[in-house]
Structure formats: structure tokens, C-alpha cells
Hints:
Elements: H1 26-38, H2 48-61, E1 65-69, H3 72-82, E2 90-94, H4 103-107, E3 111-115, H5 126-132, E4 137-143, H6 152-162, E5 165-169, E6 177-178, E7 181-182, E8 189-193, E9 206-210, H7 213-223, H8 227-232, H9 236-239, H10 254-265, H11 267-286, E10 291-292, E11 300-301, E12 311-312, H12 322-331, H13 377-385, H14 397-412, H15 414-425
Parallel strand pairs: 2-3, 2-4, 4-5, 5-8
Antiparallel strand pairs: 1-9, 6-7, 6-11, 8-9, 10-12
Helix pairs in contact: 1-10, 2-10, 3-7, 11-14
Amino acid sequence: MKPRLALCGGPPAVDVALQSWPPYDARIAAEVDRMLQSAEVSYYGEEGHVAVLEEKFERYHSVRYALATSSGTAALHSAFVACGLRPGDEVIAPTHTFLATVMPVFAADATPVLVDCESDTEGIDPGLVEKAVTERTKAIVVTHLWGHPVDMDAIMAIARSHGLKVVEDCSHAHGATHRGRVVGSIGDVGCFSLQGKKAVSGGQGGILVTDDEDIYERALLLGHFRVRAEQGVRSPGMRQFADTGWGLNYRMHPFSAVMANATFDRLDEVVERRRERHGRLLELLRVAPGVDEPHVGPEVTMGAWYGIKPRYRPEELDGLPIDLYIEALRAEGVKIGRPGSAPLHLSPMFNGASAERMPFAGSPPEGRRAYLPGDLPVSESIHDCALSLPTFTYEPLEIVEQYGEAFAKVADGLDDLQRIAKERAHG
């Protein structure tokens, strides 16, 4: 006899609770308490816990420079400015990404040109990147979405053939690799978010890594004026501006650095735990009707992942509405929802909104494209069927098995779910 769906009054399949992230660490609390007592609450130079964190990122990514910032968005803004963008310049960017990947391009006085993604990896499509290059293109930004690295060999070949800079948004992909190279170290500059949900977390914070001295110095001048800029800016042409820089304050808080240092020290352990748990979950999703497990290419390692994002296949469940499918899984105790970010080209900032509708910004550059629904169909189709599951790290493997049981149970209860769907359709 099939187990009764929890939505119909049966017991839920999942009874193991998710753990909070990042996990509590008494050492962080003790160090922050010590800093409060000694008034070590801000840094102006290359010092303290921030300097330690930057050195760790430099070693891990085999780069000469790392620069901690107040957020991943600040790191990306610093990267775009440091790439020397000017008004009228274009940056080719993915539409299928979080807004912070792209919106700082506007703040750097340049124009994003959105392109679609690959249907399997969900990363920006190199073939479409090549087609989007014009005489105004100055850079490409890629997102290693959900932790799956973009095809960096193809992206770098395009960039080098056209003389373009490449910015890697690695916010989801701490520790991930493409053909043996750690993401963030492949393009001209890599940016990481250290926000609370990230594998390396400072609560808030970001970090920029690069081998390019010019990019590093320009990033310093944008958000680290006075002491830090005077310490780090060596070239005569830019050193004269070190006292004021651009005047922005993108410094990382010392407490964020304490937390990020502690979580960074556990990164390899976190990567291994997530690989084990998520690998098993993919096996279970592979045999569950109604859902496709996420693709993982043979040329990549997923590093610390960033949740599991399967796709719903209603045709395998006789067209069952996705909202009812999610409701049934939630009743079983599964933490599941829809990804929060729609493709960027569907937002008002990209669909032809006028200056009157954007009172905080100037008029869109002349000739800037206005996107319409259907223009970038792969991203739209993925968003329409995408599901979002948690990131498992320190939870017992039992919870992964229970999640697999819940997916199988909901598929087995299709008759009851179709009955519920018909009853609701008829009021």
C-alpha cells in the first residue's frame, strides 16, 4: 500500500531539521568580544583580520592581489570601474543571474548587453557572447551560477580575440574549478560575495582577486582612499590621487573579516560535505518522475555549490501544476520554492523604461536595447520550471535520503494530487 501524502493527512517524509548557516562558532564570538573590548572596530590600512583574509584568498587562487570589500556588489562595482569602462562602453552580461552581477555596470557609466544562457549549465552562452560583440564592447561578465563554472576556455578565447576584459562573478562558486583552475583566477578579475548564505561568509562582505596591478590599483582608489590606497597604489600616474581616490568607502568591517576567516578555514571541509550530500541527492532525483536533476559537466567541480536547482517536468506528472507540486513537497517537510530572481531582461530597467520611470537615474544611453519577453527564451524557460532546494552541509545524510523519499512519495501520489487539482479548478 502506498504511503498517504502528507497533504492528504499522512505523516511527512522529512522529520530531520535543516541546520542554520553559517554554523555558530564560539571562537568567532570570543574574538569579536576581544575586539570590542580593545576598540578594534575599524581598519584604515592593510592590517588586522582583513589583511589575513586577503592573504588567504591570494594563496588559494594563486593571484598577486586580493582586496576585501563591504559586499560582493561593491567588489563587482570595483572590478568594472577598474576595467576602465567609460560612457558608451558595453559589457556583455548574462540575463540569467542575480541583479548584483549586472547593475554595477550602470554605476560604472557603461551599458550592459544581456545574452541568454546554455540550457544545461545555465551559464552564459559563449556562442551568443561572440555574436553580441561590437566596437563598443569593452568587457564580459560571467556568473558561475549555482556554483557551476561557465565554459571559461570559450569565454577567454573570445575575450582575447577582441581585446576584452573578463570579470568573473564567483559569488555562488567558492572553491569551484574549471578544467583544474579555481574560478576567480581565470579571467582578468574575480569577485566573491561573503554574504550570510555563502560558503565563505562574513555576514556581509565581498572580495576581489586579480593578477593585474592596474586593476588592483584602480579598485583601491575607488573604495579605499587615504591610508590603504597610499600603501597599495605604486604607479605614479595613479598614486597622486591616493589621498582622495574616488571617495567611496568600500572597506570591510573587521567583524566580517573575523567571521570570513573562520569560514574560509573550513572551505575544503564544506566542499567535501556538500559534494557527498548533493551528489546523493542528485542520484535520488534522477529516478524521481517529474523532476530533472541539475547538470554537472565533466570538466568542472562544483566547489561549495549554492543549493540544488532541479527543474520541474509537468509532462511526467500528467501536467500537474507546479504550485501544487511544490505544496505537496512542502507538506512532506521539504524546504522547496521557486528561485527568487527572474531573468533580468524582464525587469523595468531593461524593457525600455523611460527616465521618468527611473527618477534615480539619467536617461538610458542612445541606442540601448529594450528587451521584450521571448527575446532570451532559454533563460525564460528555465525560470518557468526551476525549483530551489536547500544547501546541505552539516546535516546528517539521513535528511538527504528523506528528501529523496519525499520526491518519490509525491510522484506516487499523483492520483490524489490530480483529484485535488480538479476540485480546486471547479471551486
